[in-house]
């Protein structure tokens, strides 16, 4: 594995970690903090959720089916989200690895 593929995997892992941090922070902000209006808490939660979801694209989009399946199996919301997020991270790392391998192959052939 060459340095470029390692760099790409580290970048994707870092972005996914930042996305996970944002999404996990959203789970704790459903109730407004002391001295905070409910609309402000909703705005912060919505912004963090949007940032976290965006940082974990495309894996979070493709892994959404695992979230739906987990809810269909009547898992708790926390367990369903853990499965969704972990599947999204795995998909993103797999895509980065495949992209890096394809890039190296194309660069070595041409």
Label this structure with key terms:
110 residues; mainly alpha; elongated
Question: Can you characterise this structure?
Answer:
This protein has 110 residues and is mainly alpha-helical. It is built from 5 helices and no strands. The chain has helices at residues 3-27, 38-55, 59-62, 64-72, 77-109. The protein is elongated. The mean pLDDT is 81.
Order of helices and strands: HHHHH
Mean pLDDT, to the nearest integer, reads: 81
Low-confidence stretches: none
Task: Count the DSSP helices.
Answer: 5
CA-based shape? elongated
Radius of gyration equals 17 Å
Beta-strand fraction estimate: under 5%
Distance between the termini: 19 Å
Quick take:
It contains 5 helices and no strands. With 110 residues, it is mostly helical.
Topology:
Blueprint: H1 3-27, H2 38-55, H3 59-62, H4 64-72, H5 77-109
Helix pairs in contact: 1-2, 1-5, 4-5
